[in-house]
Amino acid sequence: GASFALGFFALGPYLITRAPRPEAVKRSDLGFVTRNIWESKINALALVAFACYLAYYGVSNLTPENISGFASLFKEQSMLACVSTCDLIVLSLAMGDALAEDMRRRNVDPSNAVAFASLPVVGPVFWLLTRPSLED
């Protein structure tokens, strides 16, 4: 939730300082919320739907006027637009390692992590939808 407000400033310290856990995790070892909500395909589907809506909204508003307006904000007027754009890029790049670790934990070839991480917002949530369940 904090990443929506603070972006990489909220997730960055975690992504940088976390200790990799390459060993397998059993579904029964997870807490109630993680096992029943965060690992749920219903939750993943809701996240995919929202990410697709955001992508649709962004693409449907790509007009020359909007693009030039954003370029003007980015270069000259708004530090928030610049910081937010850079934040999205850095956060997307930082997700690759976390996705690769999750893929290894689920016995999936981690070479696909770059493909999922290269599509900001949409890629990681599609991984949540398509990833295999943890063993019990």
Explain what you see.
71% of the residues lie in helices and 0% in strands. By secondary structure, the protein is mainly α. The longest helix is centred in the last third of the chain and has 27 residues, at 79-105. The radius of gyration is 17 Å and the shape is elongated. The model has no long low-confidence stretch (mean pLDDT 86).
Can you summarize this structure?
Helix content is 71%, strand content 0%.
Provide the descriptors you would attach to this structure in a database record.
136 residues, mainly alpha, 71% helix, 0% strand
Fold blueprint:
Layout: H1 2-6, H2 8-17, H3 32-38, H4 41-60, H5 64-77, H6 79-105, H7 113-117, H8 122-130
Helix pairs in contact: 2-6, 4-8, 5-6
Percent helix range: over 70%
Which outline best applies? elongated
**Number of separate strands:** 0
The Cα radius of gyration reads 17 Å
Structural category = mainly alpha
The helix/strand series, from N terminus to C terminus, equals HHHHHHHH
- Count of discrete alpha- or pi-helical segments spanning 4 or more residues: 8
What kind of sheet is the major sheet? none
On the 0-100 scale, what is the average pLDDT?
Answer: 86
Q: List the quaternary state of the chains.
A: single chain
Poorly predicted segments: none
Strand content: under 5%
N- to C-terminal distance = 28 Å
